[in-house]
Design a protein that fits this description.
By secondary structure, the protein is an alpha/beta fold. The protein is built from five helices and twelve strands. The strands form three sheets. Strands 7-8-9-10-11-12 form a six-stranded mixed beta sheet, with helices on one face.
């Protein structure tokens, strides 16, 4: 009787073991297949002038599960938002089981101001779109603006609304002429001075600065390596250049 009961118990355990094994096989095989079939091997990144491909990938691929193509795609496409400084948005395209295309849309900033040790970056409409302790070398620092309040994602209220049009014209022409301008300064009469390395150019007050900055480009090519202040406030093609005196 005891042996018969023992054989029955062994038979039940054997059947349970077989059922458990089947369940494990049914579950494990698809999981293994999913993991190995959708390994993320190719990531194409386009659209950003601010970040390299490697920098964008470092922001996105932060865990082992992110190396799965489908998980990574659905995670960022539908479920998880990610904030990257100076990036407006990201779009994702699933190419195949091993490849994803990422399109980066940079925030459009034309200038920044310094406030309490941070740099506040604003767009062509004066909206503050980013705050950072880092200074971007290709974005000019704007000096001489007076403002009442500073709120992220709101418009920077300055003393004259027209100044944004002036700044936009300046930055567009600076980019067009490939000038390396670190600072744009307004004085109390709204006259403009730009710093280009060791050369300071006084541009005056104008409706547009297209011709003036085109002329400045030629002057800078001739004056490379010099330490000068150039007065371009007149209406003719003759400019006064004075050497800067070192304080040392």
């Amino acid at each position: 009787m005891g042996k018969k009961l023992q054989r029955k118990k062994n038979s039940v355990l054997k059947r349970l073991s077989l059922h458990l094994l089947k369940i494990i096989v049914i579950l494990v095989i698809p999981v293994v297949a999913f993991v190995y079939s959708f390994q993320l091997k190719n990531i194409t990144v386009t659209g950003s002038d601010r970040y390299s491909r490697e920098e964008i990938i470092d922001w996105l691929i932060s865990s082992e599960v992110d190396h799965n193509t489908l998980i990574c795609y659905f995670k960022y496409k539908y479920f998880t938002g990610i904030r990257i400084p100076f990036v407006e948005k990201l779009s994702f395209e699933l190419v195949d089981r091993n490849s994803i295309n990422i399109r980066v849309y940079d925030k459009k900033v034309i200038g920044c101001i310094e406030f309490m040790g941070d740099y506040l970056y604003f767009d062509k409409d004066g909206i503050i779109v980013e705050s950072s302790s880092a200074r971007l070398n290709d974005i000019p620092l704007i000096k001489g603006l007076k403002y009442q309040k500073i709120v992220l994602n709101e418009k920077l209220e300055v003393q004259k609304e027209e100044l944004y049009d002036v700044i936009l014209n300046l930055t567009q022409q600076i980019e067009k002429n490939e000038l390396k301008v670190s600072t744009i300064s307004f004085n109390s009469n709204y006259e403009v001075t730009v710093d280009c390395g060791n050369i300071k150019a006084m541009l005056g007050k104008r409706s547009t600065y297209d011709e003036t900055l085109a002329k400045l480009k030629n002057i800078l090519a001739e004056a490379e390596g010099m330490n000068l202040t150039i007065d371009m406030r007149g209406e003719n093609d003759y400019f006064i250049a004075k050497p800067e005196i070192s304080s040392d």
